[in-house]
Amino acid sequence: MKYEVIEADGFKYIEAGEGETLLLLHGLMGELSNWASTIDYFKERYNVIVPILPLYELPILTLGVKSISKYVHKFIKYKKLGQVVLVGNSLGGHVGLVFTVAHQEKVKALVLTGSSGLYENSFGGSFPRRESYDYIREKVEFTFHSPEVATKELVDEVFKTINDRSRVLRILTIAKSAIRHNMAKELPKITIPVSLIWGKNDRVTPPDVAEEFHELLPNSELNWIDECGHAPMMEHPAQFNVLLEKFLARILLK
Q1: What pTM did the predictor assign?
Q2: Is 110 helix (H, G, I), strand (E, B) or coil?
Q3: Contact present, 218 and 190 (Cβ < 8 Å)
Q4: Which of 52, 99, 113, 129 has the most CB atoms in a 10 Å sphere around its CB?
Q5: What is the per-residue pLDDT across 94-134, written as a single tens digit (0 to 9) for each?
Q6: Which string of b and e fits 114-135 if b means at least 16 CB within 10 Å?
Q7: Following CA atoms 226, 65, 191, 49 in sequence, which dihedral angle do they give, to the nearest 10 degrees?
Q8: Strand order in 11-16's β-sheet?
Q9: Phi/psi zone of residue 123: left (φ > 0), alpha (ψ -120 to 50 degrees), beta?
Q10: Kind and range of the H or E element at 51?
């Protein structure tokens, strides 16, 4: 990736541009490169920050969506950020929701794309078979509507992660935490503007999940991207960026 990862005071992150802060939160198997097109598009007008979430560093006994949310809080305090726009994919969306419920005054708006928090069909509903490269490739392809988005580089990265025993234990711990931490009762408390940008063909967090989010979040809009799976910012970055830009223009110009 062309952006340098900054390492300072126990934090790792990418930062580009100036202006209102967009804080991008990656998913459980997500890489910083997942947000490359978003950073490229918005860095001329916004301060775009992508922290590396400490999925493999936090103590495993406390690891879960709440502890990762607390890390995001510490990061925002460390960077001395004012109100931010949180943009989260998959687990990153779930972390953003937990953070927003606890610190709504620090969030100007929230953008969720393929977010967990209500339901997630991770790894297609089965335990990851670590030894089989073909199996891992199929499950990475399952994330997208178009299998070709699952490049060899992406599959190799997931395969490497899945074959690290310590990382697998952490992935399963976080996944179980996400399942336990259902947000349905807390979502009505979130009154800031929320944009749901969802793939019409998302099989991990299917369209009815987006519709339930829309119903439970009192100040939300729902935008669909056709022929798109669980990671719209990767599969259809141009459409994702336009929808995000329209939302930002509406809520920031108020």
Answers
A1: 0.92
A2: strand
A3: yes
A4: 113
A5: 999 999 999 999 999 999 999 999 986 654 444 556 568 88
A6: bbbbbebbbbeeeebeeeeeeb
A7: -70
A8: 6-8, 11-16, 47-51, 21-25, 84-89, 107-113, 194-199, 220-225
A9: left
A10: strand 47-51
